[in-house]
Structures are given as C-alpha cells and as structure tokens.
Amino acid sequence: MDFELPKLNYAFDALEPNIDAKTMEIHYGKHHNGYTNNLNNIISGTDNHGKSIEEICKYLDLENKGLRNNGGGFYNHNLFWEIIGPNGGGEPNGEIGESINSNFGSFENFKNEFSKAAATRFGSGWAWLCAHKDGKLEVCSTANQDNPLMPNGIGGNPILCLDVWEHAYYLNYQNRRPDYINAFFNIINWEEVNRKLINK
Ligand code: MN3
User: Fold this and answer.
1) How does pLDDT run across 122-180, given as a tens digit for each residue?
2) Is residue 101 part of a domain?
3) Which strands sit side by side in the sheet containing 157-163, from one edge to the other?
4) What ranges make up the beta strands (E) of 42-108?
5) Which of 99, 163, 83 has the alpha carbon at shortest distance from 131?
6) Domain CATH code at residue 77
7) 11 domain residue, yes or no
C-alpha cells in the first residue's frame, strides 16, 4: 500500500485571513503532494514499504536524506492539517488545557514558549508540542522536515506542530514570521489536539 495524500477536512479558503487560500492550495496540492509522491517512489521495493510513517520516522537512517526529507514532509504536513481548522483558536479545554497549565504554568506561558521556538528556528523547519508517556509536555523545534519521532528528535507523541518554512506563509506575510505564528493560534483545533493527547 502506498501512502496517500490525506483529504483536507476544510476548503482552501476556510482558514482566511489567517492562512490565505492560495497558500493552502500550493502548500497542500504541490508541496505536500510532492513529499507524498517522492516518499512512495523512495520506499518502493524497499523494507520500508508497508510500514507506518511513524515507524519509518522512528527507525530512520538519518543519512538517507531522501527518506528523511520526504518521509518527514509527509508525516509533518499530515499532522499540521489535522490540528488546524476553521473553528479553531482560543484557549484549550479538557485534558489538554489542564496539561498545558500544569506543564507550563499557564496558557500564556505555553504560547510564549511555542512561539519562541517557532520564531527562532533559523531557516526552514517546524515547532512542536510533544506529549511524553509520563504526562510531561515538551516544546521543541526541528530543522527542515525533521520531526521529534526521528532518532535525532525528543521523542514522545507529537500533538501540535507549526510549519515555519517560508512556503507556509510568504505569500501573505512575506518576512513577518511572527505575525504568521500569532495567526496560527487563531486556527488551532484544540479538540483534535486533545484527542491526540488522550489517544497517545
Ligand atoms: Mn510545508
């Protein structure tokens, strides 16, 4: 079974004005689709064919640049589209809200730490929130299409991520990455993040 580009649960223009329709169309239809096709080509006829993308990331040979970039690109965008949505934003309720408060002291503290990780990632990469088995939540950032599951990552279960490659925001925000990071907080689908936390 090859990997498939997952269907989006919302229209390209559903996240405006936070993310514009043109950016969504190119980001999903070209970038994510490209990672998906490249990944399928790379694993075709190898031991990785038939494995889950999580397994592929976890047991990745970091020297395998093609698999690292495209496997990461596939996994990272899958998660990204799931944890944003048109009815998102605000402060989280339920277990995720409680866990953020107990791990970071307050939602504001969490927002600051996550935003800092996203803003200070030099060049292309991602910011992450990961849930560890002992209940600890941890923020980190990764370069390029690396993710926390990979052997160079912090591990745990990634439950929230933000793409800070320029292709994710440049059409609308140009060099203003901090504005894009702020806008991201208007579209986080906390119900889905909560589901991922509970189902870890
Ligand atoms: Mn991207």
Assistant:
1) 999 999 999 999 999 999 999 999 999 999 999 999 999 999 999 999 999 999 999 99
2) yes
3) 137-143, 125-131, 157-163
4) none
5) 99
6) 3.55.40.20
7) no
Domain assignment present for residue 59? The answer is yes
Q: How many Å lie between the centroid of ligand 1 and the Cα of residue 163?
A: 6
Quote the ligand 1 centre to 27 CA distance (angstroms).
6
Are 8 and 25 in contact by the 8 Å Cβ rule? The answer is no
Two structure tokens written together for 68: 């690292």
Domain count, the chain: 1
Pairwise CA distance, residues 99 & 136, whole Å: 8
Residue 93 Cα to ligand 1 middle (Å): 28
Separation between Cα atoms, residue 77 and residue 159, nearest integer Å: 12
pLDDT in tens, 71-102: 999 999 999 999 999 999 999 999 999 999 99
What is the distance in A from the centroid of ligand 1 to the CA of 105? 31
Residue 114 belongs to domain spanning:
20-200
Measure 177 CA to ligand 1 centroid, in angstroms: 14
Q: Would you say residue 134 lies in a domain?
A: yes
Ion ligand 1 residue ranges (Cβ < 5 Å): 163, 165
Distance 76 CA to ligand 1 centre (A): 8
Helix, coil or strand: residue 43? helix
